[in-house]
Input
Amino acid sequence: MSVPSAAAASTEHATPPPPPPTEPEAKPSRLAKMRRGFHAWWEGYYLDPEIDPNPPLPANQPTEEQIKEDKWSAERIKVAELIWGDGFTFPGGVDHVIHMVKPMTLTSAKSMLDIGCGLGGTTRTIAKTFGTWVVGMEASPLLAKQGAQLSEMAGLVKKAPIQHFDPATMKLPQKKYDAICVRNIFGSLEDKDKLLQDVSKALRPGGCLLVSDFAVRDRNADSDAFKKWAEGEEHPPRLCTLDDFRESCGSIKLDIRVCEDMTAEFRELVVKGWASLAEMMEGKSLDPEEAKALAKELQLWQRRLAAFASGDLRVVRIFGIKSA
Output
């Protein structure tokens, strides 16, 4: 069976010329430091130029009991990485990550929270590309544990730590992060507004929020493909519409810059991943447990693609800036 490939698009921005080598890099003036300190005090967060202003949260690793009850397995993780790339368990990859977070204008002076990070492929990509301090949080105990190990192996245990969390009970420090990314978390939550409020409070004034998740075309979605998809998901889906997301984000005083249906773009990423796997596996084989995991993953994505085709299941993206 042949699968159409998808073309990847990227936008390059001109880089400003570096300063003359004979001139040393200018240091912030005393007045500039005072202004930064006063702004931090006024907005209610701590800033001390003598220490790292963006330290990672203390590691929160899952217990062995939690790992045993996880829906993920070592075999499934291996299969997912074969499809989506090293360190990734969901469609995307390095180039897509960089494209998605470009509007956040990330730098080494900023901190970020990556909620729903999987194995941390996105978390580490951002840390390595922009130098940003990124804390990755993952609901799957096994993915969180292996993601933390991958960050340690990459020498990014401080720059891109991965930790386990429960979306229903998580607590975040207030006004700590310059950017927050939330992926594939809201779709299974009953109380979406609570998490959105907590995320908003964790953002500093002027901070960026990026949300990407499954959504439903309208609340009357009842196609056979949609029903089969919902029955096959690991957690009962509780989806809302794109308009619902927009309204909720407006309630937290988010200046919304992007609010769009990205189903077509996402579907291309899915097709591209499976096409790459088919090419890679030609003439090769997996052990029985890995083959079983591959079969289950194929069925999962077949149901999702069929639900996309029905028009009922959508993938949406919202990007906004927290009002000062």
